[in-house]
Amino acid sequence: HVQLVESGGGSVQAGGSVRLSCAASGYTFSRNCMGWFRQASGQEREGVAIINSAGRTDYRDSVKGRFTISKDNAKNTLSLQMSSLEPEDTAMYYCAVRFDSDCNLLPNTFNYFGQGTQVTVS
Fold it and tell me: How far is Cα of residue 118 from the mean position of the Cα atoms in its chain?
């Protein structure tokens, strides 16, 4: 069965950096679109970054130039390097996978989400 396990969250000061990781199992990692999403308290889940099977990436405007999504197909690991963090980046961060041919930032198009890891920027 599909499993996605996030790690790397924590508390950081504004302007700092954090790297999130997501260990995936239960499916062919290299063939699918994967993404990072976040949900702040009292707000809806939103797309942060996606990467498709060919390595094409896309980001929400507010994180462009600050966040970088990457994947290691040999290790079945998805990563999100976050720099120049702002208090507005505070949220629970989730990795996710979808099993069709499309790849975009819409949360409701993804099939599985991990349990999340909290990032708090102060």
Answer: 12
- Please tell me the distance from the alpha carbon of residue 108 to that of residue 87, in angstroms, as a whole number: 26
What does the DSSP 8-state code read for residue 80?
A: E
Residue 25 DSSP SS3: strand
* Contact between 45 and 39 (Cβ < 8 Å): yes
Estimate to the nearest angstrom the gap between the alpha carbon of 99 and the chain centroid: 16
Could you give the 3-state DSSP secondary structure of residue 107? helix
Report d(CA 27, CA 9) in Å as an integer: 25
Q: Encode pLDDT of 23-47 as tens digits.
A: 999 998 889 999 999 999 999 999 9
Give tens-digit pLDDT for 72-92: 999 999 999 999 999 999 999
